[in-house]
Each structure stands twice: as C-alpha cells, then as structure tokens.
C-alpha cells in the first residue's frame, strides 16, 4: 500500500497542506520546527489513532481552530481508498472511508504504517509502559479485534481499582466483598487473552529483531526479547521486576491459573493499597544485548539500533501477513543520529518497501538512494518538490 496524496486542514502548524507522494522513497526536508514531523505524525494517526508525541488528540489541532482534518488517498494495486479523520476539540472524532461514515476505531483496518521517531529511544531506555504500548499497537494493527480486548481490560482495571478504593475507605474485608469476585473473573479472562497474544507476538518478533539489528548495526550483538509477567512474580511491587523471564508462548489457560493464584495471594495487599497489583498492565518486555539488559547497558548507538530493529521487525511482520501490501514505513529524523555506515545499512534495509517516508533537517544526512522525491518545507508550507 502507498499514500498517493496527503491533505491536511488545521493540523498542527498547517492551515492547509496538499502533499503528493510517490511509491518508493519520499523525503521531507526543512529546518527544525517547520512541520516535517507533523506530516508523518498525521499519517501515523490514521493507522494507530494515536500520536507518538502527545497523549491527547486536541494537541494536534491548530491553535484557534475547532477541528483538524487528515485526508489520505491510498492505493493498493488497483484498489483506491480515500481515508479521512476529523479530530474535534469539543466533540467525538469522526472518520470516513470513501466519503462514507465509519466508526473511528475501524480506521486502522484500512491503512497500516510503522513510524520510527527519536521518541522511540524510550522503548530501550524508558519505563515498561512504553514497551507495553509498542506491543499492543502492533497487536491491533495485526488483529483489530484485539483493540476491544485491550480497551475492555483497561476499563476493568479502572473499575476494579475504584472498588478497591471504596473498600479501603469503608473498612470492608476482602472476603466480604463479593462484587470483587465478579471483576476478578473479567480481569482474568481479558488479561489472559492479552498475555497469550503478547507472548505469541514476542516469539514471532524475535528472529525478525535479530536479523534487523544485525542489518542496521553491522554486528550481531545477540538482540533478544523476553516477557516478564507480574502474574509469575513473587513480589508485591508495582511491576513485574521480580518475575523470571519467559521466552515461550504462555497460553491463556496457563495465564489464567497463575493470574487467579496471584489475585488470591495479593488480596490483602490490593485492599491495603487500593490498586490492582498484577496483570498485563504491570508486565514488561525485556530487551537484551549480549545477555545484558539493554536498558542501562546499551550505548547510544546500540540503543538506536535496537529501537530501529524493533520497528523494522514490526514492519516485516505486517508486510508478511497483510492483504493490504507493505505498511508505509516512516523514518522521522533518524539519519542525523547515525554514522555513515549505519545510514547506508539502514537505507539498504528499507529499500524494498513499497513506500518509505523520511524527514531530515539536512539533505546530505540522507543517502542518495532515498532522496528520489524530495519535498521542501518551510513555516508550515510546502514550498516545492524535487523529483
């Protein structure tokens, strides 16, 4: 799949923007702060319904406007699709496919993309929440039905926490709180599905990450992935740090048994602290290089290579499974952080994707093979292109 045209209205610093795109490499060039990243952010929103930069949608609406519109013409073989989303400041967002209204949450069914940005270094160096989000976004791109499982699980955790807080405030004992058992059942059911899906995805990602890391770094540092699950932890801490690493697929049945045992064991602690202490919302994806945790041990260059490998592995899995063709691969301000050899290796690694969108402040930072269609940007305006 490729994007043949991107239209923006009141998105970030763009009053309007009309950007024709081509198959293969497309490069957006401009000084920092001109709006390059805003272009790839808008397309990423179409496929994930989220931004890699902000947690609230209204931050993407141009100051003084009430709504922002992202519209993209997509092409997959002979099939053409017009995908559109309107991000509203004070009402629910709206989406359309070929001018017909659809549920906004269904947009990712029509468009698939993978974005790498400097913020993705937090996958290596940051907190577990970012790695959980990485896994869940990829799960939804592969299987949109899982968005419902994830949303329902998050809702159950919130409601269960509310019940635990009420119980603590009123002094109710755990064995007197019959409604908690009902929420436990939902928590275990949904959480076990999510644990199984994540562990299967991690297993599938492993060989792709190993190959992608070697392709980018030029060396095999034994990049490995593992699950660290709070339901197998003997600790009552706020994360899964005390749990042994798992590199196999954990079935929903196995997860459900361990989940229930953990809830029974931690019931008193949960009532004391008024939070749900175990479940997928407290798990982690552990990343290792040469047998050591990448978080804390990886150098800056190794961290960049690992983060890139995770995104390239994601793109390779999506392109293998999708009937929509390759996902659109987007590289935001990547090449300035890489040395010359890594730049050339990355260019080679992405060369066969149907479409690659790249942003850069300096044209010379990008290998010539990726500068085929260069779009120049200044002050939120498309000032010209160089085929």
TrEMBL record:
Main location per the UniProt record: cytoplasm
Gene3D superfamilies on file: P-loop containing nucleotide triphosphate hydrolases, RecF/RecN/SMC, N-terminal domain
Cell location: Cytoplasm
Keyword Nucleotide-binding attributed: yes
Keyword entries, A-Z: ATP-binding, Cytoplasm, DNA damage, DNA repair, DNA replication, DNA-binding, Nucleotide-binding, SOS response
Any GO CC annotation of this UniProt entry: cytoplasm
Residues holding ATP: 30-37
Matching Pfam families: SMC_N (PF02463)
UniProt record, GO biological process: DNA replication; DNA synthesis involved in DNA repair; double-strand break repair; SOS response
Any GO MF annotation of the entry: ATP binding
Domain RecF/RecN/SMC N-terminal: 3-360
Role summary: The RecF protein is involved in DNA metabolism; it is required for DNA replication and normal SOS inducibility. RecF binds preferentially to single-stranded, linear DNA. It also seems to bind ATP.
Family statement: Belongs to the RecF family.
Entry-linked PANTHER family: DNA REPLICATION AND REPAIR PROTEIN RECF
Name of the molecule in the record: DNA replication and repair protein RecF
UniProt gene name: recF
């Amino acid at each position: 799949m490729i994007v043949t045209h991107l239209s923006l209205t009141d998105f970030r610093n763009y009053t309007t923007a009309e950007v024709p795109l081509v198959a293969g490499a497309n490069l957006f060039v401009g000084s920092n702060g001109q709006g390059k990243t805003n272009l790839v952010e808008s397309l990423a929103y179409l496929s994930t319904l989220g931004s890699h930069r902000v947690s609230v949608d209204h931050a993407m609406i141009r100051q003084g406007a009430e709504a922002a519109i992202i519209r993209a013409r997509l092409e997959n073989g002979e099939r053409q699709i017009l995908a559109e989303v309107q991000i509203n400041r004070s009402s629910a967002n709206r989406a359309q496919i070929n001018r017909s209204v659809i549920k906004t949450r269904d947009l990712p069914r029509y468009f698939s993309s993978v974005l790498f940005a400097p913020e993705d270094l937090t996958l290596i160096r940051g907190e577990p929440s970012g790695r959980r989000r990485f896994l869940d976004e990829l799960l939804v791109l592969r299987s949109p039905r899982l968005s419902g499982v994830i949303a329902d699980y998050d809702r159950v955790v919130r409601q269960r926490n509310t019940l635990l807080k009420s119980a603590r405030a009123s002094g109710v004992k755990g064995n007197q709180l019959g409604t908690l058992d009902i929420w436990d059942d939902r928590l275990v059911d949904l959480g076990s599905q999510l644990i199984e899906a994540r562990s299967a995805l991690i297993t599938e990602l492993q060989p792709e990450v190993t190959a992608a890391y070697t392709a980018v770094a030029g060396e095999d540092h034994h990049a490995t992935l593992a699950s660290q699950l709070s339901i197998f932890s003997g600790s009552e801490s706020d994360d899964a740090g005390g749990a042994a690493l798992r590199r196999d697929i954990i079935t929903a049945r196995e997860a459900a048994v361990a989940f229930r045992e953990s809830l029974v064991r931690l019931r008193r602690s949960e009532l004391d602290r008024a939070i749900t202490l175990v479940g997928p919302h407290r798990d982690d994806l552990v990343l290792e290089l040469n047998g050591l945790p990448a978080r804390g041990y990886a150098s800056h260059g190794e961290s960049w290579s690992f983060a890139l490998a995770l995104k390239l592995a994601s793109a390779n899995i999506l392109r293998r499974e999708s009937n929509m063709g390759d996902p659109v691969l987007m590289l935001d301000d990547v090449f300035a952080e890489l040395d010359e050899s890594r730049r050339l290796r990355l260019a080679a690694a992405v060369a066969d994707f149907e479409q690659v969108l790249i942003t850069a402040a300096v044209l010379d930072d990008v290998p010539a093979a990726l500068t085929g269609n260069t779009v120049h940007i200044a002050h939120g305006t498309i000032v010209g292109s160089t085929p």
